[in-house]
Amino acid sequence: xxxxxxxxxxxxxxxxxxxxxxxxxxxxxxxxxxxxxxxxxxxxxxxxxxxxxxxxxxxxxxxxxxxxxxxxxxxxxxxxxxxxxxxxxxxxxxxxxxxxxxxxxxxxxxxxxxxxxxxxxxxxxxxxxxxxxxxxxxxxxxxxxxxxxxxxxxxxxxxxxxxxxxxxxxxxxxxxxxxxxxxxxxxxxxxxxxxxxxxxxxxxxxxxxxxxxxxxxxxxxxxxxxxxxxxxxxxxxxxxxxxxxxxxxxxxxxxxxxxxxxxxxxxxxxxxxxxxxxxxxxxxxxxxxxxxxxxxxxxxxxxxxxxxxxxxxxxxxxxxxxxxxxxxxxxxxxxxxxxxxxxxxxxxxxxxxxxxxxxxxxxxxxxxxxxxxxxxxxxxxxxxxxxxxxxxxxxxxxxxxxxxxxxxxxxxxxxxxxxxxxxxxxxxxxxxxxxxxxxxxxxxxxxxxxx
Length: 451
What we know:
Number of domains: 3
Strand content: 5-15%
Number of strands: 10
């Protein structure tokens, strides 16, 4: 009964978030923009477009992801959602009167919405955990190489999972089954397929929550389509090469957005270039050879964020935490991702795409491929500025994890997915961990056991 009441309150709170946004805008429009009001059905249409935009933006920025995101991240997601939805509505209302309306009204509306939504979001997240207390969890592993790392990552979600035990796949059958019986959630990490199959069957039979930390083949199967051979089901893995029309649409999207972004950011790029030059009278741009589709090399452009002699020893290396090679100006433009603005010209010229796997340096890509041969599969598509690995991973994400994220993108590619990832990238810019360097003393993101 308590759980049912909590669930009802949780869904009421979610509706209250949407209702608050809607009502606040309706009142704000009448107070600040009365000249934009239509006749009855016209107003209804505009308001439906607004609430629809809010809902879609909430989905794109994971504003409804209660229980799976941190509370600060949830609040920030709703701020981004309101920013996008209100900006779009501002343009629609301006078109209504055929002139730019004063922006102060929409800013006040958004401010009031944020003040009300922030505590509602925190309250909804707390309700979620009242409705769904943390699960007793176990981790069944095949090898200990990644066990500590993944145990730490799962433990970060202590409100959702309480890891009671880690157990090897090679333990006695009775021990494995007793451990599963005492748990609510079971994580599988690199378990041999023959052993994992019967363990999964046992978990499924006993209604356990199952979480599989995927391998490369798991990611491929996740995007497979089902077809029937007579009365036998089969998984069909599509060729990741998109149709010609889809490729053309992606290229047109790249040209349009990169051109628009260059025009908008050009004054800022000029200022950044001047500041970099004044600091040490050295080159403004940093040019570096990277790998793109088919293993081809191209020259990538970035604003220089390091000292000119950053690799005077001839050893290619990624940026480390608190790297003393990074200049004060470079530290700022790296944190804000402004150092990547010149890559828009790489996109415009066709060397890169807006969305795709991040291009690695040939020397580092070779090291990664020696340890993880499948890493070369990332070059099945054109390299990009942003993608799954940049949004859900970090700068220092291990190469095998980066590979899984990039393959998920390649196998799930669509123009709508590209647009969604571009919007999500705006949020990532403000997240500190997304630009966090590798550990000091390292030259790549390889784990110690992979070196």
